[in-house]
Queue: 2 jobs
Job 1
Amino acid sequence: HNTRPDARIPFQLLPQTATRTPFDPHKVTLEEIDEVLEEYDDGPFFCGDMITAADIAWAPYLERYAVQLPMLYSDALPELEPRSREYPAIKEWFDAMEDLIPCWACRVMGDPNVYAGLLKEAVEEEGVEYVDRVPKTVANALHRNSFPGDILWKQYASGKPYLAATPAEECAAQLVRNRQTLLETASSDTTTQIHLSKDDVDVALREICDSLINVEDDDQAAGLSPKAHDLVTRLTKDLTAPKDMGMLPLRSLRLLSPSAVDQITQPLNPSDITQKSTPPPSPTDSLFFS
């Protein structure tokens, strides 16, 4: 199956029908993966304490499963929630990929919002109910107190003079490098309530970059102007990982967006279960790269 980030959701819908695939095959798959991971006592990866081709091969499927199964099978949790305590070895594998492999979180890891968008796009065409929300177990993954983001970035950026010193500075650098594209696209966007001219976008970008580089407290968004807030909202909607930048730099930008922070901290409520929602951004398009 095609495992590119723009591939359709794998295996969750029966072909040419408006029904989900049966519950049992997904549960069996997760149980068997959990058992395989438990076979090696010396490490959390598929072949022990070192990452191998087996982990790389399974990663695109497992990170999609972690987002899409709980969204589509909300009536079958925690049995179909890969990052739950139901599957301790899988949960440990995810934590190890994020905490121990610098290139994963810094550049390779896929964007949960993209996988959620792919699911929404597919199921809304078929009228299938789903939870319109990235699972909290996934949304919180890079916001754990134990997540060593700064250490990982330092390891990843070592020996790479083209990378900035921190994820936030790397995000600012990417915005500066692609300033002209952002001026054109943001100023021509007619889908938002606030219209931004090119001058507005330029000033807002400067505010955002200044906040990314210089503000160290947790409330980075507090000092942004309304137009800068609006641009952050547009950027967090349109930019994706790993296509535009890695998850750690992108996370720095999303932390400037109140709506992104709300999605991380707010619990699920029944109104999130829906058949209709606003159209998701196209996961196949990149704001920076053609």
Job 2
Amino acid sequence: AVVSTQSTGEFALRLLCLKSVGQFAAQLRPRPGLQYDLNSDLYSSLLAKPQVRSMITDRERTMKAMAHRRLQSEIKGLEYSVSANQYDSLSPFLVPVTSTVCLHLRTVKLLVATQRSVIIIPKQVIQDLDSLKKSRENHYARDAIKYFESMFKNGNWWLRGQGDQEFLPVKEPAPSPEMAGFLSVLSCCLYLANKSQGIVTLLVPDDAVSAAKNHKNCNPPNNYTGNLPSGELMELAKRYGIRVEGALEFYSKWTMSNRHGKIGRGK
């Protein structure tokens, strides 16, 4: 192909003009983002690299902030689990006595709703309720039976009855029906403690706990014909490693610990 001298000269002239314009633009203040290197005779942009670096810096800053918040959340969670949450996390099983499900049925329902520990209803408690419901004035037992029948029928992970094989023998004398019934409940607690390798909490009426601390007898309220566990029976359970707490007090502690835990944990 033949290239005319005129065409070549015009092309060179255009290049020189563009170069001159580029040099002029590179010398403007403030710089328009163009830099000219005399040695290499090359132009480079001043905007591309700072923009990329800015994006990287912002991302690093965001990642560091997220890591810091996550670390703070984990620290608060650990503090909660060590201190505030000690009441329920250490008790995988809660076992109420007959008088507890009668006099504090609402608290039992609230504990089921927390979904923190499995509540086991001993066979002895079911037998006691069947006996107590025969009393026309004793509505406590009838309300408890109605609730348990509904829950057992529908199925609930956090509330169930004692299994046929869920007991360990308790070698203690039973001179009275009350003592025999309590030992039956205690045998269920011992099985659960052995199975879970954790603490099992026996839930009793708070009045019974208060009376035991003051070395007094505790009389059941009106319209309740059952018995409250004596201080002697509660001490017996403690000797076997079963924790004994008042139902209302236990729920109050859990509520307080959960409220503090929500600050860092959020349930």
